[in-house]
């Protein structure tokens, strides 16, 4: 007939808890405790992916010329390639965009690099260069750190964009450097984006990369490259065809 709660009320419960605590006994009520981090809290995978994306996008911005700071990949083949590179960079292969000036090749290329950054990859390092700038750097005396050092950086960087390949004057030196670069990236399955005015080959005998760069380079290109011909109007000219 005793009703302890009545007798002591909250005070009794409190005294009992105090006694248990004094003996070092756990007071935590049994049952599930919701201490899982939310998506916006450290510990949740989405939180860490978002932080990596912020960091990668800052890298992308640094590597991207002012004109292409708003670039977004919209071409279905380009977004598909970028998604493969996000999924597994070793399986993406090379991406070659070809077509006349002003068809949006460079825009799509920087857009693809941004899309990859936006996914918050574990590692994001990118070098974006034009072919003429690259050869200037690789020429003897073109870099304080030396041509071999620069070539190794281009070989090893996780993501590389070479814009406007095939516009430069080709020499034995540029051919050798291009071959070494492409061959190393090919062997290590590192992604590479190339834009060019020239198609890989032209059966009608017109100018092509094969003639420009030589067979051993285009055969490397042909083995793991997604070739995307870009067409349409020159985006740099008004649609009316007025002054450029
Ligand atoms: N999808 C797009 N949306 C908006 N502007 C674009 C788009 N594609 C290209 N441009 C713009 O059109 C111009 C030509 O594109 P660009 O990528 O430089 O062509 P290409 O490299 O083929 O010569 C650039 O000023 C670029 O910013
Ligand atoms: Mg361009």
Automatic annotation (TrEMBL):
Residues 64-237 form the IstB-like ATP-binding domain. One of its GO terms (molecular function) is ATP binding. The keyword Cell membrane does not apply. The keyword Ion transport does not apply. The lineage of its organism: Bacteria, Bacillati, Actinomycetota, Actinomycetes, Kitasatosporales. Keywords: ATP-binding, Nucleotide-binding. Pfam families: IstB_IS21. Residues 25-46 are annotated as: Disordered. GO terms for biological process: DNA replication. This is ATP-binding protein. It comes from the Bacteria. InterPro entries: IstB_ATP-bd, P-loop_NTPase.
